[in-house]
Amino acid sequence: MTTLSAPTPDASSHDDPTGFSALESEVRSYSRAWPVVFDRATGATVFAEDGTAYLDFFAGAGSLNYGHNNPVLKKVLIDYLADDRMVHSLDMFTTARREFLETFRSHILEPRGLDHKVIFPGPGGANSVEAALKLARKVTGRESIINFTNAFHGMTLGALSVTGNSMKRGGAGIPLVHATPMPYDDYLAGAEDDFAYLERLLQDAGSGLNEPAAIIVESVQGEGGINAARAEWLRALSDLCKRHEILLILDDIQMGCGRTGGFFSFEEAGIYPDMICLSKSISGYGLPLAITLVRPELDIFEPGEHNGTFRGFAPAFATASEAIRTYWSDDTLEKETLAKGAIIEGFFNEIVARYPKLDLVSKGRGLARGLQFPDGETADKVTTGAFERHMLVETSGPEDEVVKLLPPLTITEDELRQGLAILDEAITAALGS
Length: 433
Description:
By secondary structure, the chain is of the alpha/beta class.
């Protein structure tokens, strides 16, 4: 019998001024980069318990597209709770559920020519991905899934199997199978025609590639390094799926709800995915909510075949409905997001031109933006420098080499420019003038 000994305490826990290390698992991550205790937040600003204000270009990893404690959504939430409305309901019918479904259909699906049905798979993005993978396999009777290099789809086993990051995959502890990675757009720097390799594998009976049930893709890879697929690449992928009768799953968990401009990140490509995964900002307020959209003919789960205790958090329905009515009744937010994104793009282009020998790369769409540095150490110096100047910004990419900006879509232009000025100082400090 194996005897387990108590682990040696992390030396950092003795020096932790916040007092959390003695109680909380070592698996925590963001608190290591930002070692202060946060207490309050409004709009694009969060406040430490000592009152220090930090400009937030992280926005809950894309869960707070409409800002912290958005006053319009906060009123809806407070009124909902004060009126003793349903909070926990599993998949029972509720007035809040009906309001969300009807609002989502009238404001989001119908204007975009989509007729998808809504699955509530659980509270988070990984739940949405798991539901899509399960349903694709049930519909097609096939096991294999095609994913892409540098993809990130979640931390549960099915979602991890189609995720590229080796560190995150390593945490599974078991083989991650039934998924085959293919090159994402520009992964081979134009050395090969788009999908030439995949097309050949699909056509060749001797390739050894199991016939896939689905292909899962992000229009913009957030955790993978703010890699934005071209519209023509997405259209070619959609066409390939149709020709080979492969279901197309579009993971819009981080890039949906307006992050790239349109409500869905794939709108500019003019494609119609078979399944769409949404979470993060769908509730509008940072409350847990996830949905999996599926074409009606794919809706073949038996009652209860995919379920979960927290698949219908009613307060999130209430704030989600109001967020959609407030921000998606017209194209105002979309235009503002694109305009603010252009400001960041211009700033990043100036930085790239300032340091021509470093081969920096400006990346992204809308208000999902990244600046790629030569290595993760340099990018970390930049984000650390930003934090020291009271700004929250993270890194992404396989080596954490990309400084990643995800400010709230509702950030003011003054706040946006203030953040870019801080970032400029941090970059100068890390790279020199």
